[in-house]
């Protein structure tokens, strides 16, 4: 079985094609194709509330390319989900309809709670009896989920994202709202562990030179990497640290969002599992198709 997931984010758009195999009662996911295209829809939307004509044309071309790959790989089923930038743009639904009519690709615009639920589906193996704060930082929004004894007890999406933060485009009231939510929902829990998802925390983790099989960072290490990144200019982060241009500018604002949430929760440790929305989409697709007989 072959499945495809497309994540239309505010900072970039991702396609993953996965092959699912069954053997001896078990199943495995093997990545066949992964593409990340740096189309920053959020920069348009968070300033002018609409996707520009230039980025609209590029987006249509990208969707055509993705649809060709989905067809070439003979995918059995796919899901395409758009998040903060597309759902806040005044012309987002119009563009979605154009893609459906002209290309035959269906795009689902999902809200923050749906986005959080999909990401959570990929976190199952990391949640146990302890208390956890899941922090997913995107370009346009941050999704927070709080777990206790394997149960999700609270969830909320905030308009706090790495692209929004580039121009200090986040009102103080929104920051206060996030901190209040964390304080009220966590309460007296003294040892809460954070789980960080999103491209920026994955890159911060990579820059930390982690030991083999270690998938966590402590707060001091995140601060250390943040200071290290701030010691370079934008150009040097690209040329010396080999960061993509669309990562080099947002990684520092993103680190501040992760640290702000951890500080509000009193959390000193973060697990970085390297999963995201596309992985949750794969779980949904597999559950939907696992009992279908091959043609």
From TrEMBL:
Q: What is this protein called?
A: Ppx/GppA phosphatase family protein
Q: Where are the transmembrane segments?
A: none
The family database entries (InterPro entries) matched by this protein are listed as: ATPase_NBD, GppA/Ppx_hydrolase, Ppx_GppA_N
Question: A Pfam family in this protein?
Answer: Ppx-GppA
Which intervals hold domain Ppx/GppA phosphatase N-terminal? 29-282
- Which superkingdom, per the lineage? Bacteria
């Amino acid at each position: 079985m072959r499945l495809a997931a497309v994540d239309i984010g505010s900072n970039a758009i991702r396609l993953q094609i996965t092959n699912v195999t069954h053997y001896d009662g078990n199943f495995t996911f093997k990545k066949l194709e992964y593409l990340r295209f740096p189309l920053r829809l959020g920069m348009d939307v968070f300033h002018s509330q609409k996707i520009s004509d230039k980025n609209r044309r590029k987006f249509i071309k990208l969707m055509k390319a993705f649809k060709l790959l989905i067809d070439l790989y003979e995918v059995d089923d796919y899901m395409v989900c758009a998040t903060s930038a597309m759902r806040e743009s005044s012309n987002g639904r119009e563009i979605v309809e154009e893609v459906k009519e002209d290309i035959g690709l269906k795009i689902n615009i999902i809200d923050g709670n749906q986005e959080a639920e999909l990401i959570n589906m990929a976190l199952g193996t990391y949640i146990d009896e302890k208390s956890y704060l899941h922090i997913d930082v995107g370009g346009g929004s941050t999704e927070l989920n709080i777990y206790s004894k394997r149960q999700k007890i609270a969830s909320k999406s905030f308009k706090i994202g790495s692209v929004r933060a580039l121009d200090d485009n986040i009102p103080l009231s929104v920051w206060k709202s996030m901190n209040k939510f964390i304080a009220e929902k966590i309460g007296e829990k003294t040892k809460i562990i954070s789980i960080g998802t999103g491209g920026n925390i994955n890159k911060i983790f990579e820059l930390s030179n982690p030991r083999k099989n270690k998938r966590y960072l402590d707060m001091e290490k995140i601060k250390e990497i943040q200071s290290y990144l701030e010691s370079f200019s934008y150009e040097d982060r690209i040329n010396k640290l080999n960061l993509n241009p669309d990562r080099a500018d947002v990684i520092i604002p993103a680190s501040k969002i992760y640290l702000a949430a951890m500080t509000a929760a009193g959390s000193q440790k973060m697990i970085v599992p390297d999963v995201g929305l596309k992985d949750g989409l794969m779980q949904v697709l597999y559950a939907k198709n696992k009992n279908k007989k091959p043609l």
